[in-house]
TrEMBL record:
Belongs to the FPP/GGPP synthase family. PANTHER family: ALL TRANS-POLYPRENYL-DIPHOSPHATE SYNTHASE PDSS1, GERANYLGERANYL PYROPHOSPHATE SYNTHASE. It holds the Pfam family polyprenyl_synt. SUPFAM superfamilies: Terpenoid synthases. The keyword Metal-binding applies. Keywords: Magnesium, Metal-binding, Transferase. This is Heptaprenyl diphosphate synthase. One of its GO terms (biological process) is isoprenoid biosynthetic process. GO terms for molecular function: metal ion binding; prenyltransferase activity.
Amino acid sequence: MNKFWIKYPDLDEELELVKDIIKNNIKSSNKYFTQSIFPLVETGGKMLRPGFLLIAGKFGNYDKEKLHNLAAAIEMMHTATLIHDDIIDESKLRRGIETIQSKYGKEYAVYAGDFLFCQCFIMLSKYNYSMENLRDISNAISKICIGEIKQHNIRYSTKASLRNYLKIISGKTAALFAISLYTGAWESGCTKEISNLLGKIGYYIGMAFQIIDDLLDYKGDTVKLGKNAQNDLIKGYYTLPLIYAINEDKEGEIKNILENSRLKENDVKRIIELVNKYKGIENAERLADKYTEKAFINIEKLPNCRSKEILKDVTQRLLIRNY
């Protein structure tokens, strides 16, 4: 498993089992189709959402089989959204490997993502999950789609606002973190109060996580990210550091570059210089810190137990990233 979880051998082992469940459920009679999806599953990323789901489950009556399958379904859903994201963004790399759309074509990748969505709900139908949770998971998918549509609608727009940006990341990222923690708790018999609290924590973690991820587009490199650096900027997705900088750039130099030319390497370098000059990165870091602080304030409201300490530690390590 990814070294992120190695500090917790029990969780690390359980997430390997979750990955095995995913592999078993995406096996298709078409071997070529299966082989195209397997590498993305195998690399796995940090498996944050299933990890958080399992942590939340340990606040209640932990049913290993039930939660492992729920965690697998959530991760399959997340992977499906990544495959579709790569089509829209025409990304070449994902988790350090060639994307499905790059290797096999866009049409093929559409079906691969759709297949994972279908398998996710087939898995959910096999177990006695509450109708409320199934509805909430479906709502989370709707929020992801709406967030992505909103983001697409303001692509290349220099009029993107902080309010719109926060609505977008609330849907496309925070919703799945929130549902992971909420469903893990609720399916383990936690009270509504504890389940809602964990869902709120997931929301704040997701908001901070996405802001930090967007910061890496301005401060990271391709090798560290496992995807193309400055990809969002080049593809017309103007995220928080740039939004802050545009608002502070009274001379309008950033807008002029973005609106009057197709970005070249020198343009990208200049924009990054201006984002730093107008404290776009600094202000984005500050907002990420605010969401992180809200997550920790709410974690402190949870009952004292080992799971609370794990959640606190995992959140700390996740949100203090290379930015």
